[in-house]
Design goal:
The structure holds two protein chains of two kinds. Chain A contains ten helices and 19 strands. By secondary structure, chain A is α+β, with helices and mostly antiparallel strands. Among the domains of chain A are: about 100 residues, Rossmann fold, CATH 3.40.50; about 70 residues, ATP-grasp fold, A domain (Dna Ligase, domain 1), CATH 3.30.1490; about 80 residues, Alpha-Beta Complex (Aldehyde Oxidoreductase, domain 3). In chain A, strands 3-2-1-4 form a four-stranded parallel β-sheet, sandwiched between helices. Chain A has a four-stranded antiparallel β-sheet with strand order 5-8-6-7, sandwiched between helices. In chain A, helix 1 crosses helix 8. Chain A is globular. Chain B is of the alpha+beta class. Chain B folds into two domains: about 90 residues, Ribosomal Protein S8, Chain: A, domain 1; about 80 residues, GMP Synthetase, Chain A, domain 3. Helix content of chain B is about 35%, strand content about 25%. Chain B has a four-stranded antiparallel β-sheet with strand order 1-4-3-2, covered by helices on one side. In chain B, strands 5-6-7 form a three-stranded mixed β-sheet, with helices on one face. In chain B, strand 5 and strand 6 form a beta hairpin. Classes of the chains: A alpha+beta, B alpha+beta. At the A-B interface, helix 1 and strand 2 of A face helix 4 and helix 5 of B.
Chain lengths: ~400, ~190
């Protein structure tokens, strides 16, 4: 059986889905994480410890492991491991994205430069250094604008501003968020970019030998107008017209080409404007959180099944997405604080159309609201005859759920 | 590269009640009339028979619609034959439940729990039915983002290595109730 090296950060939401997909594939599995497993000594071929934050340093341990236990495929589909996956796959001679491309996609400044150079529509932006004395000056393109750190994910630290005073306050606040983040280089600076209005969509895609296959287009029906950009609902199939969906797909493909991405999962956020789709960001990874659970392909394959098959070299035609309307609600953190309990889980699960309510936090855990926070306390999944039914089910279920926090 | 895949077939009656046996090759399946019939289908690489479920691993270019039809036909042929799914010799090779329980508990005590204790975790043996094993994870393992990895890559491997007669190993943990997980899931 082929051996799959799965790069899995210890705090990912995705472990069960990926392990289940690996089991369905019947492969020999090695799990690599940034911290050693407590049971690693029980299964020497089953575990590796890799310094994901330093991708080049992952190569030697993987090559040494490969000498002993031949590795046939590598996959890393979370933000924190995609760069390590790229260099490791390259070192093993497997299909891979170039490190420069993955790094550029993760770096919002570089990504804007490459998209602009290839005439792919993206927000106008100005880069600022944190130590510039006037780094909170008004942008040349005016307001509304968005303050955005370069390398945080899940819209952490992203704030819409409508005037110079709000910009100054946002720059101070984002500066504190970035300064508190481990592993972020303050020399990276930040972006002030134009706020693009229009409905937002997310595209889930798979790159195979440089060709983008669109797996799903998600609508985000709740307006994301700011000032913070915590996600709420994703619905698929998209209600956009065929022409708009085709334009979304073409723009995604152009964005991937501009960044040089050629292999594996991509998750692209876009706004659809009167003049066409505008790329907000291109992530060289699959959809985050537990959201992949929305998608089913062919006879019931998960997104993780599709991605593992791709990593294992399967180039057969991709199965179609199962044509049921489906969606996910990412639970809002609400006020934040130390969680006591989540009320209403049973009632939310009983809402017609709701398939599953997954609470991913535990009592005693401290949750932080956006823009400082970046983790959702749970997910609600629904399916139905139409996206309208699904959206209604998700809203109703969301109204049933209350996060109860400790009072000070 | 050909990608192996598994497909589970659910039958309307138990063919190997409350027991589970994995056959990794045609040779290993000689004492199982059902598994032998399945290995005769081209591309079948492994067979797991559990109660009323048969999980077939396929390795080769044939598609599941093709292989699945042949597997279905082989299962129907086996049921019509009236033969046992697994021969008495294999059944008799599985130690009594009490013996299995003691051996599994020994692996937990000697190998697994001293290791997971370093992360504040514990793995408990809840029950053994036939050769199916039910475990529960507690402490730092309950709700941990890496609990599945610990179970499938560590606990299962250690138990199967010392007690190869065990069938499925099932985690009965309510991970949502874990209030002190070693790794709390939070990252995209």
């Amino acid at each position: 059986m082929p051996r799959l090296l799965l790069l899995l950060p210890t705090r990912t939401y995705r472990t069960p889905a990926l392990l289940a997909a690996a089991a369905r594939c019947g492969v020999e599995l090695t799990v690599a994480s940034e911290e050693s497993s407590s049971v690693a000594r029980l299964n020497p071929s089953g575990f590796l410890t890799l310094p994901f934050s330093s991708p080049d340093d992952c190569v030697a341990p993987v090559l040494a492991f490969h000498q002993q236990f031949h590795v046939d495929a590598v996959i890393g589909i979370d933000d924190t491991v995609v760069e390590a996956a790229a260099v490791v796959a390259q070192a093993l001679g497997l299909p891979h994205n170039e490190l420069a491309s993955v790094s550029a996609a993760r770096d919002k400044k570089r990504s804007r430069e490459l998209l602009t150079a290839e005439n792919v529509a993206c927000p106008e932006s100005e880069w600022r250094a944190w130590d510039e004395h006037d780094c909170d000056r008004s942008p040349g393109f005016g307001f509304p604008a968005v303050v955005k750190p370069l390398s945080l994910s899940a819209s952490r630290g992203v704030i819409r501003v409508d005037d110079p005073a709000a910009l100054a306050a946002a720059v101070s606040r984002v500066g504190l968020i970035v300064a508190a983040e481990e592993g972020v280089d303050l020399a990276d600076g930040f972006l002030v970019e134009s706020f693009v209005s229009g409905p937002e969509v997310a595209v889930e895609g798979l790159l195979r030998d440089g060709q983008l296959e669109v797996l799903a287009v998600f609508d985000k029906p709740d307006p994301l107008e700011g000032p913070y950009f915590e996600e709420t609902i994703y619905l698929t199939p998209s209600r956009l017209g065929q022409q708009d969906q085709a334009a979304v797909g073409e723009t995604c493909a152009a964005a991937c080409r501009a960044l040089g991405l050629t292999e594996g999962a991509v998750h692209v956020e876009m706004r659809v404007t009167e003049s066409g789709p505008v790329v907000i960001e291109v992530n060289p990874r699959a959809i985050g959180g537990l959201c992949s659970d929305v998608l089913r392909f062919g006879t019931g394959l998960s997104l993780e099944d599709v991605l593992l098959h791709h990593a294992l070299g399967d180039r057969a035609p991709l199965p179609d997405r199962v044509d049921t309307a489906a969606g996910v609600l990412m639970l809002p953190v609400q006020s934040g604080g130390v969680l006591v309990r989540v009320d209403g889980v049973e009632a939310a699960g009983a809402v017609a159309g709701v398939e599953r309510v997954a609470i991913t936090v535990h009592p005693g855990q401290e949750l932080t609201a956006w823009p400082e926070g970046g983790a959702y306390p749970g997910f609600v999944f629904a399916r139905g005859q139409s996206t309208e039914d699904v959206e209604q089910a998700l809203h109703t279920a969301g109204e049933e759920l209350t996060l109860v926090y400790e009072t000070s | 590269m050909t990608v192996p895949t598994m497909c589970r077939f659910t039958i309307d009656r138990p063919v190997y009640p409350d027991q589970s046996f994995h056959f990794g090759s045609a040779e290993a399946a000689e004492l199982s009339p059902l598994a032998s019939r399945l290995f005769a289908v081209e591309g079948v690489a492994a067979v797991l028979i559990t109660d009323n479920r048969i999980t077939v691993t396929k390795y080769g270019p044939a598609t599941w619609p093709e292989v699945g039809q042949q597997v279905g036909a082989a299962i129907r042929e086996h049921i019509a034959s009236g033969e046992a799914a697994v021969s008495p010799e294999i059944r008799e090779s599985i130690p009594p439940v009490d013996v299995l329980r003691d051996r599994i508990q020994g692996v937990l005590d000697r190998e697994i729990n001293p290791s997971v204790a370093s992360h504040g975790g514990v793995v408990r043996l809840l029950d053994v039915k036939g050769n199916m094993v039910y475990v529960q994870m507690g402490g730092g393992c309950q709700g941990c983002g890496m609990a599945d990895v610990t179970l499938k890559q560590g606990v299962e491997v250690a138990i199967r290595s010392e007690v190869p007669e065990v069938g499925e190993i099932m985690d009965t943990t309510d991970h949502a109730s874990g209030n002190n997980p070693y790794y709390a899931p939070s990252k995209k």
